[in-house]
Amino acid sequence: MSTNVADGALAPENGGTLPDLSYAQIFAKFLRFGFLAWGGPIAQIAMIRRELVDEEHWVSSARFNRILAVYQVLPGPEAHELCVFFGTLPKGKLGGLLAGLGFMMPGFVLMFALSWLYLSTGIMQTAAATAAFLGVQPAVIALIVRAVHRIGGHILLDRWLWGIAGVAGLAALVGTPFWLTLPIAGLVYMFAARHQRVMAGLLMAVLVGVGLYFAWVTFGSTVGGDAVSAQAIANQKPSLLELFISGLKAGLLTFGGAYTVIPFLRADAVGNGWMTDAQFLDGLALSGILPAPLIIFSTFIGYFGGGPLGAIVMTIGIFLPAFSFSLFFHDQLERLVDSEKIKTFLEGISAAVVGLIAATTLELGQKTLVNVPGVVIPLAIFAVALALLYVFKAKTTILWVVLAAAGTGLVLFG
């Protein structure tokens, strides 16, 4: 064992002993983590902590907690950002890059293959596949509902945050753009946390007013809404640059966990006519059965928008912030997050994102009830899936729930 590290490592502050690993060994180590990344971010972070902190002592437990706190506040998949950061410790920035690539590679390759299978082989034209995905769609809604509950439990810690989430969710339902909602929400909580409640209240009123304006625009002319929808469906496929920007935007806005990316990717993918809501839910279902951060379903969306190159470009875009934060800006971001103003601003944004996910879940649920035959059957699949997700905590619970829902679809709709 050695404490000699490449430039950029932080051994004196880590309170641990770093291993002497080659670049190939770093990639292989985190590639193994990628193959074992079942069960979502909590299980992934626990795995990284158990091996690198408890068993190998790369950093002290206190140092790990501080690092994790930084990435929980920032956007992006925390487990992936942790892998990139840990890779920098023994071998600097190149080590971090290899660690991040290793961790994401299994999920990317599998999702790329499934996207090709879904789109290029005609498998979705078969009655069996159609029936299976019809069964899966209500279960995916249950996955999102469980995620909203879990994320909200960590973020919505006082009445102001609950209020922000509620207003942001209602605003999203009437078509308010997130680029207006999120900064106002951040300012509301920044002032509320400083006990400047008059200013916070005024900004909350502004947020409500913006929502009312878009409600009037959205529901004031149904003809205009139909025209926008028809135009979106008629749009040509996006360019590679548009796919990259869509992924990059989503990667910069995933506050609170990977599920928070759902409303942003749906706004582009479904809103611009790249895919339908049913296909969007199919992509979420496929990502749920893979050992990877859930945002890997961006690969599926990119494949829809631009084929194999589109899948690669969109994946690069959505993971780029996670790599950049850890490789280039970790120290600065750690100091920045210590700022109470910045911290509360980001907490307000996170609360608003919870509201956006909740609104998106309602919209997707409504589309699922329309798409899946009957009403009782999809509601029953949803209820059973949700109960199983709450009762069973194993890493592979999501995998088994999705597979069971697919089997149910085959039996009922095949």
Automatic annotation (TrEMBL):
One cellular-component annotation, GO: plasma membrane
Main localization of the protein described in the UniProt heading: membrane
GO molecular function: chromate transmembrane transporter activity
Membrane topology (UniProt): Multi-pass membrane protein
InterPro entries in the cross-refs: Chr_Tranpt_l_chain, Chromate_transpt
Entry-linked Pfam families: Chromate_transp
Keyword check for Secreted: no
Entry superkingdom: Bacteria
Keywords: Cell membrane, Membrane, Transmembrane, Transmembrane helix
Annotated compartments: Cell membrane
Regions crossing the membrane: 97-119, 125-148, 160-192, 198-219, 240-264, 284-304, 311-330, 342-362, 369-391, 397-413
Family from the record: Belongs to the chromate ion transporter (CHR) (TC 2.A.51) family.
Name recorded for this polypeptide: Chromate transporter
